[in-house]
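It would be a great kindness if you could assist me with a short task in structural biology. Thank you for your consideration; the sequence and its tokens are set out here.
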Amino acid sequence: MKKQYSFIFLTLSLSIFFFSCKKEAPIITPLNTTDGSSKVIQDDFEGTPIVVIGNSRNQFMIAYERTLEDGTLMDFTVEQRALPIVMKDTEGNLWDLEGHAVEGPRSGERLKPLNSYIGFWFAWGTMFPGIEMYDGTPYTGNFVQEPPSQGWTLPKERVLTVLGQDGIPAIDEPKFETFNLRTSIDDGFFIDDHELVIGVTVNGTTRIYPHAILNWHEIVNDRIDDFYFSLSFCPITGTAIMWDRTINGSPTTFGVSGLLYNGNVIPYDRETGSRWSQMKQSCINGNLIGDEMSPVQVLETTWATWKLLKGSPEVLTTDTGFGKDYTTNPYENYIVDHSHLSYPVEYDDDRLPRKERVLGIIINGKAKAFRFKDFE
């Protein structure tokens, strides 16, 4: 699961490459630059200069390191052009939402995506107690996490069994339809513009995974060229994460274990039967305990926004082989009730509404949250 790839994962929630800069990262003062509906935030977290691009209207937030591979520290401001271009820098380069320099002297270079994804606030608060907030709201709790149980990396008594293994069926043979703008104008398309989707670009191929389908399956085992990956969406915590599904040198598939930890889905790999924490991105029980996923940064946004980014992406179809009604959301009442939690959590951080969607950035095992309000 450690193999490195050069590709992009877009769901707003792009690929994460875990190489570090040899140069000591300078501490910088947070800087907000705005000129319309999008906004750029430059910040420092865990000694790493970062840039976060967000748009509350278009419903995206995504984060990158500001230091390039050659050690150059970039300084960004917002560029209000038509998507996908979102930023410019002091060297005269223009950068798109995927972190690529598309115009200027650095054309063809790419920013290093950060390990980040969007999820409900309560999930970030309980999985990363004391999470830092960009707006500076201090943490005042005194939560002490219970010690892990034998054979687990977390307290087993906090793991709930809600369904049998594979009670929620993963999609192992996904089928896709290429979106065509002209055809969709004439005949419509099965995704509404306001619906949230997850997107990924690998080797020039862009694929879209609608929430409407993932709500019923939670995991898609997919492949683009020679890259085998699993995409997991947890409707309870609102988190989408993608990772390399190669184990011991061979691709495997992941399924839904039927277990939850703090409401978050626990996938299992079919190679060893080991169980993994989706949000913690590591194996929590089984033969591979302690191993980490090789995650890919996700861009999660609306279908309307994705259509501005890519002309003809491949879209996961409802032809899944399962008789589900993808026009209905089994979690609709749960989503509408902004305070109700279906399952207990270890810690309830009340600094934000429980189901506010935030972007969490993880560096050195610590997390920092950005709100859509930060980009208004």
